């Protein structure tokens, strides 16, 4: 099985859904029950840097991540159903983590 990280971007259309603790508890419980959850956390404020620029243009804040296991990126995408950030109209970026 492959490992993926879901990066939740801070661009939701409905913050009430995205910030609903009960929805997050339900979603994470669902992932745990599937055996595909491998950790995660919210992410606080920070900054991005380039050698000659303090804040790269177009930078979208990421406010959390979830690490999962799935057979494919399509299978990982199916796990977005119920994700409060996704359901609130926000971006969830899926990246495959390389095998080490």
Automatic annotation (TrEMBL):
<protein>
    <recommendedName>
        <fullName>YCII-related domain-containing protein</fullName>
    </recommendedName>
</protein>
């Amino acid at each position: 099985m492959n490992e993926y990280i879901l990066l939740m971007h801070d661009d939701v259309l409905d913050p009430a859904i995205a910030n609903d603790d009960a929805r997050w508890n339900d979603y994470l419980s669902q992932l745990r029950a599937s055996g595909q959850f491998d950790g995660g956390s919210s992410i606080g404020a920070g900054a991005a840097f380039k050698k000659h620029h303090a804040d790269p243009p177009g930078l979208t804040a990421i406010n959390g991540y979830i690490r999962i296991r799935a057979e494919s990126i399509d299978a990982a995408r199916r796990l977005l159903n119920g994700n409060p950030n996704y359901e609130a109209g926000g971006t969830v970026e899926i990246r495959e983590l390389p095998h080490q």
